[in-house]
Amino acid sequence: MSALQVASVYIAINILMLIWLAFRVVTHRFRGKISMGDGGSEPLAKAIRVHGNASENTPPMLIGLLALAFLNGPVWLIHALGIGFTGGRLLHAIGMGGGPLIFRQLGMILTWTGMGIVSLALLYFVFS
User: Fold this and answer.
1) How far apart are CA 73 and CA 118, in angstroms?
2) What are the residues whose beta carbons fall under 8 Å from the beta carbon of 57, sequence distance 6 or more?
3) Which is the most buried residue in 30, 37, 59, 81, by most CB within 10 A?
4) Closest Cα to residue 110, out of 61, 73, 64, 69?
């Protein structure tokens, strides 16, 4: 697989996760007949926050993976970053959604580590 194809796999998976998280928000809204805000519903507030967190962190990383692919970054690095970040986002969503707190914590560590490494890798490939 080319670097662009590998990056595209992680982009697709993360977009599907965003859709899943958005669907969870819509499901809570439908059940509670809440069209705006959280209506005082704790499950809806939690679902909104889980989706919001993913929406805040996912786009920069996906842009980073795409840019790394365009800069001909090594496929192994794109895989490592994609797996780590995607796993982190999944763990974080589970942890924020009521799963063990350690999942949320590990999820953020993997998320921020991936974002930091992709940033440094981009700078390396631009200036080397």
Assistant:
1) 10
2) 89, 111, 115
3) 81
4) 61
pLDDT attached to residue 108: 97
98 pLDDT band, cuts 50/70/90, is confident
Question: In the block, which residue shows the tokens 């959604």?
Answer: 97
Tokens 């929406």 belong to which residue?
55
- Residues 6 or more apart from 122 whose CB is under 8 A from it? 64, 67, 68, 71
Residue 30 belongs to what domain range?
3-127
What is d(CA 7, CA 72) in angstroms, rounded to the nearest whole number?
11
Number of domains in the chain: 1
> What's the CATH number where 119 sits?
1.20.120.550
Nearest Cα residue to 108 out of 48, 45, 58, 69: 58
pTM: 0.91
pLDDT, residue 97, reads 82
pLDDT of residue 15: 98
